[in-house]
From TrEMBL:
Gene Ontology molecular-function annotations: mRNA binding
The keyword Chloroplast belongs to this UniProt entry's keyword annotation: yes
Database matches in Gene3D superfamilies: YhbY-like
BP-aspect Gene Ontology terms: Group II intron splicing; mRNA processing
Pfam families per UniProt: CRS1_YhbY (PF01985)
Comp. bias (Pro residues): 1-24, 36-47
Lineage top rank: taxon: Eukaryota
Region (Disordered): 1-137, 275-311
Coiled coil: 528-555, 707-734
InterPro entries: CRS1/CFM2/CFM3, RNA-binding_CRM, YhbY-like_sf
GO cellular component, one term: chloroplast
Species for this entry: Oryza glumipatula
Protein name per its UniProtKB record: CRM domain-containing protein
Annotated keywords: Chloroplast, Coiled coil, mRNA processing, mRNA splicing, Plastid, Repeat, Ribonucleoprotein, RNA-binding, Transit peptide
Length: 741
């Protein structure tokens, strides 16, 4: 009788010790007690197939650690190897022994059933964990999900709640579906401008409605295409229709059942307290909603009652931002991003009467300039802020400057966007004019935004007036004290008979004189320091330019040596005095033949070398005339090339013709032409040497050009250095004269 099946693990009455996780060490397989085999049932030994040393037997219960290498890299074989390793961990996972502990019990009693591992979305309650511990239920290891193919963990992303549009709330489902089916068949639509939904686009939409069409399509372009919900809202406000369907970047607008062709519709700004088509902002710091206003004409009293009945919408921050922007100026309806809508700077006054740049005074001990860390912090701070203004003109920005100064009383940063689609806009000129009017610090400027920081020395309007008033009071008081002192000194001189010499020690006049002289000397010293710094910079730059010129000169000399070496291996042929004479008629005929020829020899950057002469002789093997095309532009180069071809080939030059982008050299082989025994002459350069010569000539020409430019810059630097030296000498001479005086 066969012995009972062996247990996978040796049963033990004591509880199993805690084993380390398999991903830290290799799989641990406990030793099993195996009884000696029965000789009667023992199978006969298998015949030997290998004479060499037999490999070590592989234990099916063992498994390699997860960190071991897998052959195959990232291929399918490697992935299958990883799966096999994960599944083999099941054998290395010890089972919980049965409470009975009997060795002859069935295999089902030796281990409990495994519970498949699931990744919980929420942690299990503590009561459930206590119950599982009492019942002895053991959770499967995390990698058990890999061996259980039926177990799958899917984490779905939570969808955002979709806000219904005006068309979905006002139209019936059947009517809306009919309009959408009709919109799918439309193939023509209007195209919006970069400036947004302009009056031309609105008139084109109403023109389609006037022709009897219920729907009109509008294709939205950048930048309004970035927020299609905002584009839908603007389109409904300006046209008075309903957007029933959107296909990509095209909105289809329904005119409505009660559409009047000649009805004049008004254009209002947005009301923030009426909710019809909310557009939630994606900005985390400006999570306001912008509510479009229904354009149907209603009674004013009814509207006032409705406003009183409806609750206030939006958070306190949203209401404060809208209230602040409303106080700065009219809003820009065609804004292509989410709410809040910025102020339209083009509608602000161009000139503000009695406008002055603000008074600034930095607190004591504070530097007015910004450090790199402060600049980085301000840029990060300005990123999530809503846009305050939208600008489309370069000059006449006093109204915008006054609004920015008002904004700076509650905000550190003013964010100005540049309008898209407006011609002749220059963001550099805009930033320069705004900085001149406000005296702020431009921390960011590009083609889309201009961000201006108010500065550390900014004072609000009321504080600045108080400081100016206090300084004027102190100055007036000091002037009165000085006047009283002078009167008292005159009275004492008349009574006591003191000397007429007046002492200004400790007086306000002494302070004024000291302040004036110190300011003058400070200005002179600053000017002298600037001149010395400029002189030092010019001397350093002059030395650098001279060194670079010397390096260019050495390179040019080296290039001349290389060209001389190449020219030494080239010995051009001499012109033969015995040439064939051709009549004018023959030349005219050969010229026509050459111009009509499609085959030609192309002369490249290598110029004339032995390969060109060989190819010309190959053409003359079948035809009497050959046409050579060259890309050279200078007349001297073309003439030299044609004469060289005539001498080296032994032919006759017929003509040089000018084409649109090239020139043609026509050569006649002659009546007594005989093909040379060696078609490639040995006195010319080879193909490789010709290329090297061409590169070296081009390199030398570019270096000569830069050498001339260096010489010009050196002359200019020397002239500036002489002027600065003369100004320093003059300033020192004036200072010496003032001291001697």
């Amino acid at each position: 009788m066969a012995p009972p099946p062996l247990h996978l693990f040796s049963p033990s009455p004591r509880p199993p010790s805690a084993t380390p996780p398999p991903w830290l060490h290799g799989p641990h397989v406990p030793s099993t007690s195996v009884s000696p085999p029965d000789p009667a049932t023992e199978a006969p030994p298998a015949p030997k197939q290998h004479r060499g040393p037999r490999p070590a037997p592989r234990n099916p219960g063992s498994a390699k650690p997860l960190t071991a290498g897998v052959p195959g890299g990232r291929t399918r074989r490697a992935v299958l190897g990883i799966i096999r390793k994960v599944r083999s961990l099941e054998l290395s996972d010890p089972r919980t022994p049965s409470p009975n502990g009997g060795g002859g019990s069935s295999s089902s009693s030796t281990a409990t059933a495994r519970v498949p591992f699931h990744l919980p979305i929420h942690p299990p309650p503590p009561e459930r964990e206590e119950e599982e511990e009492k019942k002895g239920i053991r959770r499967a290891v995390p990698w058990a999900a890999a061996r259980d193919e039926e177990t799958k963990v899917v984490l779905r992303r939570e969808k955002k709640t979709r806000v219904p549009t005006r068309a979905e709330t006002e139209l019936e489902a059947g009517e809306l579906e009919r309009l959408r089916r009709a919109a799918r068949g439309k193939e023509r639509w209007a195209r919006a401008k970069k400036a947004g939904i302009t009056d031309e686009v609105v008139e084109e939409v109403r023109g389609q409605w006037a022709k009897g069409q219920e729907l009109a399509g509008v294709r939205i372009v950048e930048p309004l295409r970035r927020c299609m919900d905002r584009a839908r809202e603007i389109l409904e406000i300006k046209t008075g229709g309903l957007v029933v369907w959107t296909r990509g970047d095209i909105h289809f607008v329904y005119r409505g059942s009660s559409y009047l062709e000649n009805a004049k519709r008004h254009r209002d700004f947005v009301n923030y307290n009426e909710e019809l088509s909310p557009v939630t902002s994606n900005n985390p710091t400006s999570q306001g909603k912008y509510w479009s206003k229904d354009e149907t004409l209603t009674n004013d009293n009814d509207e006032a009652d409705d406003k009183d009945d409806k609750p206030i919408k939006g958070t306190l921050y949203e209401r404060e931002v809208n209230r602040l922007l409303d106080s700065l100026g009219p809003r820009f309806i065609d804004w292509w991003w989410n709410t809040p809508l910025p102020v339209d700077a083009d509608l602000l006054p161009e000139v503000v009467p009695d406008f002055k740049t603000p008074f600034r005074q930095c607190p004591p001990g504070v530097r007015p300039t910004l450090a790199d860390e402060e600049l980085t912090y301000l840029r990060k701070l300005a990123r999530p802020l809503p846009t305050h203004f939208v600008l489309g003109r370069n000059t006449k920005l006093q109204g915008l400057a006054a609004a920015i100064l008002k904004l700076w009383e509650k905000s550190l940063i003013a964010k100005v966007a540049v309008k898209v689609g407006i011609q002749n806009t220059n963001h550099e000129q805009m930033a320069r004019n705004l900085k001149r009017l406000t005296r702020g610090t431009v921390i960011l400027r590009n083609k889309d935004y201009i961000i201006i920081y108010r500065g550390k020395d900014f004072l609000p309007g009321g504080v600045a007036e108080s400081v100016i008033e206090r300084e004027s009071q102190v100055h007036d008081q000091q002037a009165k004290e000085e006047e009283a002192r002078l009167k008292m000194a005159d009275s004492l001189q008349m009574i006591v008979g003191l000397s007429s010499e007046r002492s200004y020690v400790g007086t306000f006049r002494e302070y004024q004189d000291f302040h004036d002289s110190h300011a003058r000397r400070t200005t002179e010293n600053n000017f002298r320091i600037q001149l010395e710094a400029k002189k030092h910079r010019l001397e350093k730059e002059l030395k650098d330019q001279e060194w670079r010129l010397s390096m260019l000169t050495k390179k040019i000399e080296r290039s001349n040596q290389v060209l001389a070496k190449l020219h030494s291996s080239w010995s051009p042929s001499k012109k033969d005095g015995d040439r064939e004479l051709l009549t004018e008629e023959e030349r005219r005929i050969f010229r026509k033949i050459g111009l009509k020829m499609d085959e030609h020899v192309l002369l490249g950057r290598r110029g004339v070398f032995e390969g060109v002469i060989e190819e010309i002789h190959q053409h003359w093997k079948h035809k009497e005339v050959v046409k050579v095309i060259t890309k050279q532009n200078q007349a001297s180069q073309i003439t030299y090339t044609s004469m060289m071809l005539e001498v080296e080939t032994g032919g006759t030059l017929i003509a040089i013709e000018r084409f649109t982008t090239s020139h043609a050299i026509i050569l006649y082989r002659g009546k007594n032409y005989r093909r040379p025994t060696k078609s490639a002459p040995s006195n010319l350069l080879t193909k490789r040497e010709a290329l090297q010569r061409s590169i070296e000539v081009q390199r030398r020409g570019s270096m000569k050009y830069f050498a001339r430019e260096r010489k010009k810059s050196i002359d200019e630097l020397k002239r500036e250095l002489r002027n600065v030296t003369w100004e320093i000498r003059k300033l020192n001479h004036d200072t010496e004269q003032s001291w001697t005086a």
